[in-house]
Amino acid sequence: MGEKWVLMKTAQTPTNIAVIKYWGKRDETLILPVNDSISVTLDPAHLCTTTTVAVSPAFQQDRMWLNGKEISLSGGRYQNCLREIRKRAREVEDKEKGIKIEKKDWEQLHLHIASYNNFPTAAGLASSAAGFACLVFALAKLMNVEEDESQLSAIARQGSGSACRSLFGGFVKWIMGKEEDGSDSLAVQLVDEKHWDDLFIIIAVVSSRQKETSSTSGMRESVETSLLLQHRAKEVVPKRTIQMEEAIKSRDFASFAKLTCADSNQFHAVCLDTSPPIFYMNDTSHRIISHVEKWNRSEGSPQVAYTFDAGPNAVLIARNRKAAAQLLQRLLFSFPPNSDTDLDSYIIGDKT
Ligand code: 2P0
Question: Is the complex ipTM more than 0.90?
Fold first, then answer.
């Protein structure tokens, strides 16, 4: 092999929002959760990561840039993903460029990775989910890896738990698995992106600042101190997951909304039950919940479901475009962006 060539691949991966939340690990290194979770994958136009991976004999070491700034790849999570994907690398040939990389060459060759998020990093908008999913997917393309999306999801999981759910569109379930080595802790697609076309998603960016308690340390503290987390993982989520799967499969919005809101509220209750307590939502988040609850009650049947991750931003899932338009009108009236309401902006999106 000469020294002059560079081979590149680019991938784009949307983020996902959990409607049954993952909160708590039973194994921190392998990233194995204490319960199953279910998510909806968002439309890549608004919230996605684009990653270009490149390989060349001229590269001296593995390097990565996130939003144009170099970051360290020395952390265990990156190293685990790179090791697992390299293990599965196969021969690659580009006849036009006269490049042939044999399986064994991948052990010596170094990578350059450039990743870009089109949304605020670490503001509770699941940036690590899209990031690690995209990294693993782009590397799998570059290295001609044979594994399917579910098998790749078990690698992305080792970068960030929620990342395993971003390798599919539509609604996705992360099965917690039983094996100690994590081989059965992976994502499967429940329904594809066409199944429930009516849903419309609006994200109220209450604050795009970096969160104070990272998900990783927050969930560690919850596992160590919250009794509610144990009850949730053993008693609540197993039943709720079955009900949620049924609601999604039958496009039953009333059940879907009830379960989504209940699960978000229980996740934040677990955070409050943690010692010291973790506050991800703020006054504006609480006021948005009250507003949606009141509106849903006045309509007789739910028009909108809300869910909040590890941050104050509201993810609002409207039953259809008409409900989304009404919701946006109400939000803009009651929570105008950049005013005393402390709300930064709205992202008007869609599911995949
Ligand atoms: C989720 N979250 O299911 C839940 C709901 C936040 C609240 O997954 O330590 O960034 O990298 O596995 O995946 C955020 O946690 O944590 C998360 P790690 P991750 O989407």
Answer: yes
